[in-house]
Amino acid sequence: MTRSHARRTHQTDHGSVLGSAARSVLVTAGVVALANIGRKVASQAPTAMASDWCEGLAREHDAVLTAIDKLAATPAEHPQRRTVQLGMIKQMIGKHALEEENVIYPMLRRGGEGDAFGKLHKEHGEVKAMLYELTQMDKADPGFDVTLEQLREALETHMREEEDVLFPALRERLSAEENRKLTRTMNLAGVMVA
Ligand SMILES: [Fe+2]
User: Fold this and answer.
1) Cα 42 to middle of ligand 1, angstroms
2) Who surrounds ion ligand 1 at CB < 5 A?
3) Contacts of 182 (CB under 8 A, 6+ apart)
4) How far is the CA of 28 from the centre of ligand 1 (A)?
5) 158 C-alpha to ligand 1 centroid (Å)
6) What distance, in Å, lies between the first and last C-alpha atoms of the chain?
7) Most exposed: 48, 58, 138, 162, by fewest CB within 10 Å?
8) DSSP for residue 161
């Protein structure tokens, strides 16, 4: 091999290494960008389609439970897929929790539901702690599925009380104009974070 041929070969190998590294970075960036778009669509869609705050929150509840069921159905052999799905669930719950904590729960307390206000906040705290545990856990660990099931059960109990008792009572107490204003305020709070 001549010296110039050796130099060309070395440059080509070097270039190909850089090329594959750059491609890998671009592919990763693309996956992250798509995951971010997916998270935004998943968290914004339910309330964007609803005309009323109560209906919007109920749709978000359904969307979260559906996303948890999808994660539970994802085999442990796909830990990265589980991580992306968990990230989406965290985004959905984060937006939802902020809408409730910043707008809806204060309205419940204003209406005399002080005990419910404290209980709902405590339940949100427990949900956030479970999401933290799931984030830290090995996604292939059988304990991940156990904690995920506990999260689902806690959410369902919390959602039933909101949807069946507390939220309809609040909507009933407010005038049509007050409910419209509450819907706008809640949607604005949600858009600010997701
Ligand atoms: Fe909720």
Assistant:
1) 16
2) 162
3) 53, 103, 104, 107, 174
4) 33
5) 7
6) 59
7) 138
8) H
Among 65, 86, 63, smallest CA distance to 139 is for 86
What is the Å distance from ligand 1's center to 19 Cα?
47
pLDDT of residue 2: 47
103: its two tokens = 């707008």
Query: Residue 60: CB partners within 8 Å, gap ≥ 6?
Result: 43, 46, 47, 92, 95, 96, 99
141 CA → ligand 1 middle, Å: 28
- Report the C-alpha gap between 113 and 160 in whole angstroms: 17
Whether residue 66 contacts residue 115, with contact meaning beta carbons closer than 8 Å, is answered with: no
Overall residue count recorded for the chain in this entry = 194
Q: Which amino acid is at 191?
A: V
Number of structural domains found in the chain: 1
- Give me ligand 1 centre to Cα 16, in Å: 51
Domain assignment of residue 81, given as a range: 3-193
The token pair that represents 36 in the structure block = 């971010």
Distance, CA 5 to ligand 1 centroid (Å)? 68
CATH code of the domain in which 14 resides: 1.20.120
Q: Compute the distance from residue 140 Cα to the ligand 1 centre, in Å.
A: 29
Average pLDDT value over all residues in the chain: 86
State how far the Cα of 158 lies from the Cα of 120, in Å rounded to an integer.
7
